[in-house]
Fold this protein.
Amino acid sequence: MSKVGSAIVATVLLALAAPPANSAPAADAFAAARKAPPLLRAFLYRMPKGGDLHNHLSGAAYAEAIIRAGAAADRCVNPATGAVVWTPPCTAPNRPLRDALTDAKLNNALVDAWSMRDFVPTSGNSGHDHFFAAFGLFGGAASAGDLAAEVADRAGRQRMRYIELMITFQSAQLGNLADTVAKDHPWTGDPAAFEAALNAAGLADLVKAATPEIDAVEQRMRAVMQCGTKDAHPGCGVTVRWLQQVSRTGSAARVFTQTMFGGLLQQADSRVVGLDYVAPEDDPKALANYTDQMHMLDYLHGRLPATNISLHAGELTMGLVRPEELLFHIRQAVELGHARRIGHGVDVMYEENPFSLLKEMAQRRVAVEVNLTSNAQILGVKGADHPFPVYRNYGVPVVLSTDDEGIERIDRTHELQRAVETYGLDWNALVGLERNTLEYAFVEGASFWADPVAWRPVRECGGANPASEATGSCAAFLGTSMKARLQWALEGDLIRFNRETGQKPN
């Protein structure tokens, strides 16, 4: 066992004065469960978890839930294409989406079109193509609040504490503002000049308008989950934060406008904890403008250095794009785009001098959001071909996330099981991965961990028992940081789980 692994288990069991790590009840139960996939699934589902840091709201809800919500909203659908039509009347060839609640053939066709269920690649329709095409079919069928309720509730049932959901607030308004400003002030590559034009045109007004939009989404989410009532759903206990999306396939004016808006919105509303560039990285416009967009982020960082930036970077592989496109995306995201987290990072070993890049990421503590099923479905990269173990071996912080669990037909427990079965992870590694999800979350506040490698807590909480109520200096410290409170709660969950697994069934 490694020194890091020993430190992980020692910290988890500190309050229990537990026996050595190898004989800890949870570790023993995990070793027994991994012998049979059904047992492993049940064990991992019950295991306390930190969070999911790479989760697109629009792709996270299952198709069946979107159908139900869209039916309640009187949406229509074209059965030939699977595309949702926002408003009735549902004239031919369109049909009411509610028909899919009783018409099994229509229901199955929509679920297959809106997800990877039963997908078989054919010439001209790869997993990559089918995956991304799904977003254009069901968009607008359900409200963000309904989608968030389903995702948060699923997280709560899996004993997760936290999720960051990617969403685009003020989407249409931002597009209109960017296009209007660009008519009189075309993008010339001068970010300061374009920012001045945006400010004069009312960018701050859109930032203010986003707060009631966020309020409405969260109110609907909590209402659907019946939070605050005796019938409250498990998702009510999950802390939800938002990442503002920037579409990398738009015009330069639109990308820059969305980028500045994301930084300003994080500054204005603590529920929005950062921004992320989204859309297919291999799109021709995204490839052509990649370096220019990293310069936009460099400008944003200079203007608003506290902005948390997570970037889809390296969601590429040989054959999908020219080899030359694989040489620099992750490095530029880290060094020029100031990314604190990298989404996917699949092509890291194709980068120029990848070993120095890995060392730099480890030194800077730039985390990688690994999405194993997504990478298999979209890129065909899996198993020994995936750099997941390479990142871990070089000390780069790694978190396991879902990407688009609804389209992929998975959940986060599935990703844990996939990692265990594919890469032979032990109990110590699982605990470390879950701790990473909160350590590298953008949620507000200081970390509970003074050392996030040896997992040594801050001085104020040294020796405290996370399975009990915090007191004294530890309670005061936790009161100043949502992040630390979540981390404290996870440690308590893990201690209690260890106790539970050590108890013999009745």
About this structure: The CA atoms of residues 282 and 321 lie 7 Å apart. The longest helix spans residues 203-224. Residues 144-161+168-439 form a domain with the TIM Barrel fold (CATH 3.20.20.140). The chain has two domains: 62-138, 144-161+168-439.
